[in-house]
Design brief:
- The chain has two helices and 13 strands; from the N terminus they run H-E-E-E-E-E-E-E-H-E-E-E-E-E-E.
- By secondary structure, the protein is an alpha+beta fold.
- The chain has two domains: 30 residues; 189 residues, Jelly Rolls (Sandwich).
- Strands 1, 3, 4, 6, 9, 10, 11 and 13 form an eight-stranded antiparallel β-sheet that branches.
- The termini are far apart.
């Protein structure tokens, strides 16, 4: 084989490898579907007091207590990724999952779904059932990985059948499966006990005037 032909074959092989790598990288990026487009609230509906507004490509909570929920479909067997930051450690908010029906008020999400809590203030009260990353009042925190106010956190919630796993900044906080033992309700504002469905709507909580949370990414990866 002469040198020219060898160079041509090497060039073709390199081009083919480059194309395969490009396709692979593109496919990896496409695995994550953006539920928030960074421009407006298309695909989302709000119920209850307060609101969410879009500023500089980021969702911001205003007042409350209300619920912004994704209305296009119920979700199951997914990884839900939420990138957020808080104004201070006492900021109260949450990510709702497994809401069985279209919510007409925020309490439907509280009592019929699960709230993955955002609130580091409760940690200082030594209450491991009401801090960031737990299923609010159902599960006990296994770690406390939320960053300081102003720093961005990556929360990933895996919904696989009846199992819910919550990781924050790469650390597991919650691993819960329907039927696991949970504590009894201790406070009037804690959610109703009982099973939640595999498929449900998701939502974000705007809790009150003093709790400001910013969300810059809400995306899902579907599990096969």
């Amino acid at each position: 084989m002469n040198t020219l032909n060898l160079r041509r074959k090497i060039g073709i092989s390199c081009t083919f490898i480059f194309i395969l790598l490009t396709i692979s990288l593109h496919a990896q990026k496409e695995e994550w579907e953006q539920l928030f487009n960074g421009k407006d609230l298309s695909g989302w509906e709000h119920t209850g007091p307060g609101e969410f507004i879009v500023e500089d490509g980021v969702l911001r909570t205003v007042g409350g207590m209300g619920l912004l929920w994704y209305s296009r479909e119920k979700l199951q067997n997914i990884v839900l990724r939420v990138v957020y930051t808080v104004r201070n450690n006492d900021t109260n908010s949450g990510i709702f999952i497994r809401i069985p029906e279209e919510p007409t008020d925020p309490l439907m999400a509280v009592n019929a779904g699960y709230e993955v809590q955002i609130d580091n203030g409760f940690r200082h009260l030594h209450d491991d059932y009401h801090c960031t990353g737990v299923l609010y009042s159902f599960t006990k925190a296994a770690a406390y990985p939320q960053k300081r106010p102003g720093e961005w956190n990556v929360m990933e919630i895996t919904l696989e059948g009846p199992r819910t796993v919550v990781n924050i900044n790469g650390k597991e906080v919650t691993d819960f499966t329907e039927g696991d033992e949970v504590p009894q309700e201790k406070r009037w504002f804690e959610p109703d006990r009982g099973p939640r469905p595999d498929a449900g709507y998701i939502g974000l909580q705007n809790h009150d005037d003093f709790s400001v949370v910013l969300f810059r990414e809400i995306s899902v990866k579907r599990l096969k």
